[in-house]
Amino acid sequence: MASSATDTRPSEARLRLLTTASRIFYAEGIHSVGVDRILAEAKVTRATFYRHFPGKEDLVLAYLQGADQAIRGQVEVAVAAGGPPADTVRAVAASIVEGIRSAGFRGCAFLNAVAEYPNPGHPVHRVVIAHRQWFLDTITTLMARIDETSAEAAAQHFVMLRDGAMAAGCLFDPTLICDTFLRGVDGLVRTPAARRPA
């Protein structure tokens, strides 16, 4: 029997579960939220939940995969704009700032999740590390277009600036945090020569 194009699309119930879980996990944490709460808010039966997700951990992984895809999409938009390398890095930074300034911002979904799953062998922990490695590798590639010799150090610096901005952005004045972050990124892309060892 031939499958139709609609067979590959996620069901409405799965999308509702994932959207609801993502909102609650991000706002309140993962361990503190039970499956019953998600089922009630998503208006989905337990049987429907288990048809789409074998357990809560699978829902958590899907939540983080969605967050990963969203960030990859933001980076792809910055790269696709085809600007000079420094402007591409600035555009990635601008997308991070947009998130920090958004309503309901509660920090980095990945850093929040790994704080709840500290065991390096846990699947959630591994997904977080894989995302962060991809992000570091991507920024290193972008920085290499500006100055290959200092790309690795500059990318590590960018990620550290980003982590600090994400952590502080929900604790202090987000405008001040974002301005500081963007100034730091601007320094990284404007002065590659200053980072070279003597």
From TrEMBL:
Positions of the DNA-binding region: 34-53
InterPro entries for this protein: Homeodomain-like_sf (IPR009057), HTH_TetR (IPR001647), Tet_transcr_reg_TetR-rel_C_sf (IPR036271)
Protein name: TetR family transcriptional regulator
Domain of life of the organism encoding this protein: Bacteria
Keywords annotated in UniProt: DNA-binding, Transcription, Transcription regulation
Phylogenetic placement of the source organism: Bacteria, Bacillati, Actinomycetota, Actinomycetes, Micromonosporales
Annotated HTH tetR-type domain residues: 11-71
One annotated GO molecular function: DNA binding
Cross-referenced SUPFAM superfamilies: Homeodomain-like, Tetracyclin repressor-like, C-terminal domain
Organism, scientific name: Actinoplanes auranticolor
